[in-house]
Every structure is written in C-alpha cells, then in structure tokens.
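Checked the freezer inventory, then went back to the computational side. Two predictions to log before the end of the day. The first one is the construct we discussed on Monday; recording sequence and tokens without edits.
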Amino acid sequence: MEKIITPERIEGERIYLQKPKPSFELANTGYKVAMESYDTISRYLNWIFDFSPESYYNYLSSFENSDNHFGYIIYDKDNNFMGFIDLHNYRAEDKYAEFGYWISDKYTGHGYMMEAVSLMEKELSKILGIQKFVIMTHHKNTKSQNVALKSGYELEAVLKRHIYCKYEDKIVDMNTYVKFID
C-alpha cells in the first residue's frame, strides 16, 4: 500500500495547523500548554492523568509512520501553541474517521477549534476520501458539543455507560456527533 501524504501545514484565517516534527522542545511546550488547562482537560480526557513531556514526545512521534492517525498542532498566527487536533480510527474502506482535540483554556470560546475542525475536514476529506466524520464527547462537555453542533454535526447517538472517566471515577455516557461529506 502506498504511503498516505497529508499536508505539512494547513492555513486558516486566524490559525494554522502544523504536522508535528517531534522534538523534546516541542513536547515540553505542548506539555506546558496542556497542563495550564489541566483542570478542564482532566474532566473529560483521561490521557492527561499520565501525561508527561516524554509521553507527549512519543505520541507526537507516532504520527510519522501512521496511515490511520493524522495529527496537527494548532497555532495562532503569532506561532503560539494553542492545542492539538487529530483524525483517528481512519478506515479507508468505510470512508470514516473520528476527530479528537483539545485546546488551551485561554483560547476557548473564540471559534478556534471550529476553524481547526473545518480546515481538517476540507483538506483531509479530499486526500483520504472521508465521507463520514465523527466527534465523540463526554456527555457533560458542553464546549466540545458546541464545537460539533456549530460545525454542522448532528447528534447521532448517546452511547450509555460507554467509557471510563478517571475524573469522575465511573463509566460515563458519550455523545456521538456525525457529519457527512458528499
């Protein structure tokens, strides 16, 4: 199978998405930005509990040879690391992929994540032939749900008792939002 080539950089109006070039400096920057928003991220995303600069370096390195997981760092036009967005569980035969993302608290509420989702949809749907995008959110994560809804996604299902949440120490519901690209 031929290697999938995705853009190194995707330009937006207010932000740009950059494929990670793994380095310990970049991993430390991403770690610092994520940890500044620890209280928010920890409510919804379990990875933050075991997060370290080393684990982030390894995560960023995992994109280099992957044909089903595509990640980008979100930067503002002043080159500030804002967060991260990825497509995972890409299945070429099903023309399907799921979004994952996080953004620093200081950038929430300004539409940056909606812009990042839109940029990824436009670029990667053409390259990968994706026709169904999915965003799954913790049932209490209203900010992420708003990203999905304002980006044109529809609530497809509520998956009852679907995933363990370390913050709540229990299995919680997940909302599944979908968008079809024709």
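The second is the one RB wanted added to the comparison set:
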Amino acid sequence: MSNFMIALLGIVFVIGGLLISVISSVLGLWFRAIVSSAHVSMLSIIGMRIRKVQPRLIVDSKINLTKAGLKDISVCELETHYLAGGNLLEVVRACIAADKANIELTWKQATAIDLAGRDLFDAVKTSVHPKVIDCPKGGNDKYISAVAKNGIELLVRARVTVRTNIMQLVGGATEETIIARVGEGIVNAIGSADSHYDVLQSPHNVSETVLHKGLDKQTAFEILSIDIADITVGKNVGAVLQSEQALADMKVAQARAEGKKSMAVALEQENKAKLVEAEARIPEAIASAFERGQLGIMDYQKLNNMIADTEMRRAIAKEEN
C-alpha cells in the first residue's frame, strides 16, 4: 500500500472520528431535550455549532425554563440573547425565580435589564427579600447633620428598607440617589421642628414625614420604611452664630472708635500747629506795636515778667507731678 493511500485512510479516520464525536454530541443534547419535554430540534443544535453558539448552554437553559413551566421562551430568543453578549444563565435563573415569587417579569424585560449591566438575579432576590440601606452609607460621614429652629444640631443615622422595582430597573436611579434624597428629607424635617426636643421625643414623626414625600420616584427601588437608628445632640449652632455675630459687631465698633480717636488726634495736632504758628507771630506783633507807639518799654517788661512767671509755675507743676 502506497504512502498516499495510508495518508488518505488517516484523514478519513480523523474526519470520521470528528463526525462521530459531533453526531454523538448532537444526539446526546437532542435526546436530553426530548426526555425533558423541551423542544429543541437536531437541526437547531447543528445550526448552533455553525453559528458558534454553545449548544449545551442553550439546551440546558431551555430545559430549565421548560421544567419551571416557562415554555413560551423559544430557542431562538435564547440564542439571540447569547449572541448579544448577555449573561444567559443569570437571566434564566432570574426569570425562574421571578415566576416562583409571582413577580411579573417578561423575557424581553429580563434581557433588556441584563444587557443594561444590572444584576438581574440580585434584583429579583431583593424584590423577594427587601434589603436595608444605611443612610449615610459609611465613609467619612457617619451622621446626617441637621439643625432645628432653636439652633441645636442633631446628628442622625437612618436605615432605609427597600425592594427592587423591576419595572423601573432600566433607567431608574440607584442606591446613591435614595441615600441622598432620604438625607435631604431628614434635614428638611428636622429643620421644620420648633425645638430639638420635639425630634428627640418623637423621632418617628421625622421618618413618617420623609416616607410620605415619595422619594423613590424615578428610582429602581420602592421604599418600604425609613427608621431612625440613632440621634445624637450636637453643638448649639445658634449660640455659635450669635457669638460670632457679637464678635463681628465688637470688631466693627472698635474700628469705628479707632477712627474717631484718630480724627481727634489729628484735630489736636492741627490745633497745636495753629498755636505754634500763632506763637511764632508774637515777636513780630510786639515789634510792630513798638513802631506804632502802641507798646512802651515798661509794658514790654511787664510782659516778659508775666511770661517768666508762667514758665516757672509750669516747671513747679511738672516737678510735683
């Protein structure tokens, strides 16, 4: 037997082995679907291999849906979601869980939510078992700071119980929006209270006020309850503001007083300058009086004696002081 015939027989055996493997795999999947009452034709399984779709994944998904009573979802719809890049197993699990929990969720809605990047199965679980969100949610801000009308600050922590709103999961706001809205509502409710004592005595009034504001509109959640977990009395903000205002008023008054003092000193210096100027003109006036005969020698002598006596009195007064 020539080498060519040996090579040809080898190729035939390899191809035959591959065909047998493919056929057995196709037959195995087709048989599994038949015994599970899931209608998946053999041609559909072969077509999945050609389209590079995982036949086992599609068949298993179809069997799971059929066993769960969701027979209306076709193999074509399963393939379409797989080819679109969706997480097929998670969507199938979520649809089955929603059906068992009597939650209305169509295949179209489920695939849209999955392709939008939301965790559909977790959303369904949250619809069945509501979860609690801390407000504020960790980080550096451990409390919500709010001030009552009497100026007393209250530090508040709240717990918000929510469940997923499947109908608004696509395009709806996330947990951060819920936390922000609840925080704003608590600040407004406490700010409307006449005294912080009213809030401390009836904290449920704050939670009820916030709950009735419809904070879950346009969000992916439905708020079931808002509970005040902790309230701590902070600083007296009103007193601090009044103290700061008084300090500012005092500084303004000091500035005005300094201005008046500066004006008085300037006026005194001006008067002293005028006095010095007037004293400098005295000798000139005396000389002019001599020339006109209005002042005699004896008068001039008396004037000098008076000046000397005045200077002596001033010197004595300084020594006594």
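For RB: The beta strands are 131-135, 144-147, 152-164, 221-236. The mean pLDDT is 81. Let me know if you want it refolded.
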